[in-house]
Amino acid sequence: MIRIEQVSLQYGAAEILKNVSLTIPKGGVTALIGPNGAGKSSLLSLISRLQSLQAGSITIDDLPVDTTPSREMAKKIAILRQDNQVGSRLTVKELVGFGRFPHNRGHVTQADADMVGEALKLFDLTDLAGRFLETLSGGQRQRALVAMAFCQDTDYLLLDEPLNNLDMYFSRELMRLLRWIADERGKTIVTVLHDINYGGGFSDRIIAMKHGQVVADGPPRELVTTETLRLIYGFDIPVTLIDGQPVALPFTK
């Protein structure tokens, strides 16, 4: 369980997060949505200790994120950042293998090799395993980065905009795979998404943020409504049902 209690974050005069309190139970897929500057990525970065807490507390399975040793926390959570900086002369297989480092500290075992092989297969990267990252498209590189996070084999997978650079086919396939990972492997996935329909179609819960605060929280069938989307995004978005699933239509006039 991820427990967030009265978390605030400020840079100079800018309030990024304002007294956020949330509990995310173990298991399933939770989508963080909201307009640009809502605080979604900042909240994810605090959970994953990419930046330090200023106020409030965050625990993961009762472990305080600000005081738990890094090696222990690296076996608990894996993170996909928006701005991943990785060496271009790495191969896809080498990059994915870095996900095993918290477990093997550079001494690769057969279990590590098996996990890397599985990740390459699941993320449709087997044919790209020997390619250098600099030769990949943005979408191929993004899939490799998500595969590296998966390969860390943690209970919690935190993904900041994992659909960046992915076309429609691979966006759908990645969300289907994340759904499978949560259901079949018992992982807890928390992901920042900008497409409300991917959030509605594949998540168990949507947490909507605006101006550094949580403004809506609930299952997709309750949250994906014209009224709630107006509150979040500031304009009327028609919503229709397709096979019982609410679908937002922001492009309609």
List the helices and strands and how they pair.
Layout: E1 2-11, E2 14-24, E3 28-33, H1 40-47, E4 55-60, E5 63-64, H2 70-74, E6 77-80, H3 92-97, H4 101-104, H5 110-122, H6 138-151, E7 156-160, H7 168-185, E8 188-192, H8 196-202, E9 205-210, E10 213-218, H9 220-223, H10 226-233, E11 239-242, E12 245-248
Parallel strand pairs: 3-8, 3-9, 6-7, 7-8
Antiparallel strand pairs: 1-2, 1-4, 4-5, 9-10, 11-12
Task: Describe what is shown at a glance.
By secondary structure, the protein is an alpha/beta fold. It has helices at 40-47, 70-74, 92-97, 101-104, 110-122, 138-151, 168-185, 196-202, 220-223, 226-233, and strands spanning 2-11, 14-24, 28-33, 55-60, 63-64, 77-80, 156-160, 188-192, 205-210, 213-218, 239-242, 245-248.
Main attributes of the structure:
about 25% strand, four-stranded antiparallel beta sheet, six-stranded mixed beta sheet, 10 helices, alpha/beta, 12 strands, about 250 residues, transport
